[in-house]
Every structure is written in structure tokens, then in C-alpha cells.
Design brief:
Chain lengths: 84, 331
């Protein structure tokens, strides 16, 4: 079980910072440090995701990692698998 | 279950929520209090993740971000922090609706106890501005955890909506107009306003809902047919009309299939013909009769369902292609 800090700029759809932590305590400390750092930038979203790997969190929280067009392409792939 | 308990009373937690909601700047004391609460929620989420893994589900988790928590408290007006059901959340993605229903039943049975009931929020039957999923609110160590169970396509829809909301205004997730609603979006040869694009996305959610229901129904019908055929080999050995054996005496895999069908048939059958199958307590002959009747009831509708399914698939494909061909994200 690992914890992943993602600092994401919403309007730009861009990840500003990402880091993997082996302990939840460290990851949460990094979250609150980042919150103080970006406290005057409401467009910045700071989240800690728990999961097995980057691959796992990129699957369930793909909105941080993929553009709308690429999300739609993933949907098309999923549809093809569903109907094959 | 972890020993963790909230580091403050519910009243103190609610007061913290009120201060977060009311103030423009979070004080360092409140930030520390929130950090202490988040730490406990994270421990509980780690435990929930391990328990889901023991059931075979690879979940990811998150404690709500401070920004979205404050946004929610403000949006909901009178909501108390201790009542926020999705402060701690876990997410599972599954391929289809029958698997989603099965996951919900298994997770519910794992987390429920004599005095500990899970709350189910079925956003497939009651979508929230196009959002569909099945949510279970489980109570772990006096903390509520929301387990979101989404199908692949429901998740695709939700991620597209969230990503667009990041750029067009987060209110579009709750029915608000996008920022600059008349701004144009180019998709291939077609041009839409943002307002039209959001409407198209809501429509896509409806198509996904219909498609997955139909697809689930056809999958269950196919499984019912397969089970009937498997049960046939027992019928050769024992005349089914007289066979008094209970389904619970059948081999485990047949029992499991019968249990799944009992739940699944309720999904696809109209109320009048809905079989009441308690798979453990019916006889072999009865389940044969029930499955046979169900299949017969649906055989006429099956072709129509398959045609609708094909149309739904094409509609889905067209809309997703349109979104995929948009020339610039959130333009």
C-alpha cells in the first residue's frame, strides 16, 4: 500500500507536482505543507491517493492524468472490450 | 477494524466544519485539527482498502481535499462536517453491471453486522446530473466511508465531466451553466457551444445507463441459459419433476451460479414475472421451472433488446468519438 501526492492545476489540466510515499504519515504531511504553499491559489487541488501503484491511481483517478480527448479514447477502448 | 477514533468529539468536529466554511483564511490551529482528523480517516481508509483487497477488489482511496470539503460544506449550506459521507472515499472500477451488483452484495455482507448497516446510494436508478455509480456508505470505527463502485463506462463519463468541470466551472457537475456558455468547441466538422457540449455529455450518461442495463440483462439471460444447460445433466440422472433435492445440495459452482441469477433475474424481469428465488431453499425442480419460465418470458424480448443494445453501442461510440476528436481541451 502506497500513498501518492498529486498537486494539480485545474484550469490548466496540469500536474504541478507528484510524489510517491511509502507511509501515509509522510504523504499527509506533504499534503498539508503543499496546502500552506498554495493557500492563495484556489485553482490548485492537492490530494493524497492511496493505492498499489501509480498505474492503479491513474486508472481510478484518470481525470488528473489524461486530457478529455484521451479519456474519451479510453471510453472507446472500454466499449470495444465490453462488446467484443 | 482499527482502534482509531476521531481525535475530537462530533460537536467539536462540526464546529471545525463551521469555521472552515465561514472563514476565508484557515487558522493554523484549525489546519492542525483538520490534519489530525484526516490522519484518522486515512488510517481507516487504509484498513478499508485491505479489507476490500481480501474480497478481491483493488481499490484506491482518498480523503477529500480541503478545498473540495469547504466547497461541499458551503454548497450544502447546513451540512455538518460529521455528516459528510464522502470525506473518506474508496473507489473500485468493474467491467459491467452484473459484476457491480455482485461487488455491492459482497462488500455489503462483509461490512454489515447485526447493528451495523450499510447505506446504499444507487445513482444508476437516480443519477445526479448524469453521474451514475453505486455507492455504499459503510461505518468503520464510527467513521463513514463511501465506497464508490463504478463500471468502466460510468467511470469514463465521470472522469470526462470532472475534467471539463475543472476548466468550465465545477458547477456544471451540479447543473450550473458552464463559464462562457456560448464559447465554441470544435469536434471534427461539428461545432458546439459549451452549453450544448455539456447537454451532450448528460445525454451520453443516459445512453450509458440504458446500454449497461440492457447489456447486463443480456449477460444474465446468457448465464441463465448456460446454467439451465448445466443443470440438464442432473436432470438426466433424476427426473426433475420429482427431484426433491435442494439447490444447496448441488455442487458449489452451481449454487453460486444460482445465487447470482437470483439477484440478476430481479434486475431484468418485470415485477409480475419476477421469480422469487432463494437459491438455498428451492428444490432442483423449482429452480428449473423458474429459470425456464424466466427465459421463456424474455425470449421474445431478447431480439428487441439486442437491437437496442446495438443502437446504444453505436450512439455511445459516436458521442465518444466526437469528444475524442475535439481539437483543444476545454477550448
Amino acid at each position: 500500500m502506497r500513498h501518492f501526492l498529486v498537486v494539480y492545476n485545474r484550469p490548466e489540466g496540469r500536474i504541478v507536482r507528484r510524489h510517491m510515499y511509502r507511509s501515509a504519515v509522510e504523504a499527509l504531511a506533504a499534503r498539508f505543507t503543499a496546502e500552506r504553499e498554495f493557500e492563495n491559489e484556489p485553482e490548485i487541488e492537492i490530494v493524497v491517493l492511496g493505492g498499489e501503484s501509480w498505474q492503479a491511481v491513474e486508472l481510478t483517478h484518470s481525470r488528473y492524468f489524461k486530457r478529455v480527448q484521451d479519456l474519451a479514447k479510453v471510453g472507446l477502448d472500454r466499449l470495444s472490450i465490453a462488446t467484443s | 477494524m482499527p482502534e482509531s477514533a476521531l481525535p475530537m468529539s462530533k460537536t467539536a468536529l462540526d464546529r471545525l466544519g463551521t469555521r472552515l466554511m465561514m472563514s476565508d483564511q484557515i487558522s493554523s490551529e484549525d489546519r492542525q485539527s483538520l490534519a489530525d482528523v484526516v490522519d484518522v480517516y486515512q488510517q481507516i481508509l487504509d484498513d478499508v482498502k485491505s479489507r476490500l483487497k481480501s474480497l478481491g477488489y483493488d481499490a484506491t482511496t482518498r480523503v477529500k481535499t480541503t478545498g473540495t470539503l469547504i466547497e461541499k460544506l458551503r454548497r450544502e449550506g447546513r451540512m455538518r462536517l460529521s455528516q459528510v459521507q464522502d470525506l473518506a472515499g474508496a473507489r473500485i472500477i468493474v467491467p459491467d453491471r452484473p459484476t457491480q451488483d455482485d461487488a455491492a452484495a459482497r462488500i455489503r455482507s462483509h461490512f454489515e453486522g447485526p447493528d451495523l448497516l450499510c447505506k446504499e446510494v444507487d445513482r444508476r436508478k437516480d443519477p445526479s446530473y448524469g453521474y451514475r455509480a453505486l455507492h455504499l456508505i459503510v461505518n468503520v470505527g464510527s467513521v463513514l466511508v463511501e465506497i464508490q463502485i463504478r463500471t468502466d463506462l460510468e467511470d469514463t463519463w465521470a472522469q470526462i465531466m470532472e475534467r471539463l468541470a475543472d476548466q468550465w466551472g465545477r458547477g456544471i457537475r451540479y447543473g450550473d451553466e458552464p463559464v462562457n456558455p456560448e464559447a465554441l468547441v470544435h469536434a471534427g466538422q461539428q461545432v458546439y457551444s459549451r452549453r450544448q457540449a455539456v447537454a451532450l455529455l448528460i445525454e451520453l450518461g443516459d445512453v450509458i445507463g440504458r446500454f449497461e442495463l440492457l447489456r447486463g440483462a443480456t449477460m444474465i439471460l446468457a448465464q441463465a441459459g448456460e446454467l439451465l444447460s448445466r443443470l440438464g445433466k442432473y436432470a438426466d440422472q433424476f427426473p426433475q419433476a420429482q427431484d426433491p433435492r435442494l439447490i444447496s445440495e448441488l455442487p458449489d459452482d452451481e449454487q453460486a451460479a444460482a445465487s447470482m441469477l437470483a439477484a440478476g433475474l430481479a434486475l431484468v424481469s418485470p415485477p409480475a414475472s419476477r421469480p422469487t428465488v432463494d437459491s438455498r431453499n428451492v428444490t432442483f425442480a423449482q429452480i428449473f421451472q423458474v429459470l425456464g419460465a424466466s427465459l421463456s418470458a424474455f425470449s421474445e424480448e431478447n431480439d428487441a433488446m439486442l437491437i437496442q443494445l446495438g443502437r446504444g453501442e453505436q450512439e455511445l461510440r459516436d458521442t465518444l468519438q466526437l469528444i475524442a476528436s475535439a481539437t483543444g481541451e476545454g477550448e
